[in-house]
Amino acid sequence: MLKIAIVVMMLALIASLGSGFYFLMVDQGDKNQRRTFHSLGVRIGIAITLAGLIVYGIASGQLGHRNPWDAGPRPQASQDEAPADEGP
Fold first, then answer.
1. Any idea of the CA torsion for 43, 47, 50, 51, to the nearest 10 degrees?
2. Which of the pair, 2 or 30, is modelled with greater confidence?
3. Could you write out the DSSP letters of every residue in the chain?
4. What is the pLDDT of residues 39-77, one digit of tens each?
5. Does the keyword Membrane apply (predicted)?
6. Do 6 and 53 form a contact (C-beta atoms < 8 A)?
């Protein structure tokens, strides 16, 4: 459920970015139109929410990484045993 919320927030962020670009092109510096500014405020709010969701997911353990090098050290073979792939 958390991953779905993160994807939705990312899509909303992209949509807000597109609407801000559209308003910037349509208004062309009109002093009375503040739509670009409001779109920026919405985008900042969505970005803060997205960052909060990611921090919550990592802190709760729902999000993480599964890299092979994070599995921990492997037990070392002792010096007394012969390697398994060599012959007698």
1. -170
2. 2
3. -HHHHHHHHHHHHHHHHHHHHHHHHHHTT-TT--HHHHHHHHHHHHHHHHHHHHHHHHHHTSS----GGGS-PPPPPPTTSPPTTS--
4. 889 999 999 999 999 999 988 888 877 777 666 666 676
5. yes
6. yes
The answer to whether residue 5 scores a pLDDT higher than 60 is yes
Q: What are the tokens at 52?
A: 């909060």
What token pair was written down for 2? Answer: 């958390």
Distance CA 57, CA 82 (A): 46
Tokens of 22: 């559209």
Sequence spans of domains, the chain: 2-63
The residue behind tokens 């002093």 is 31
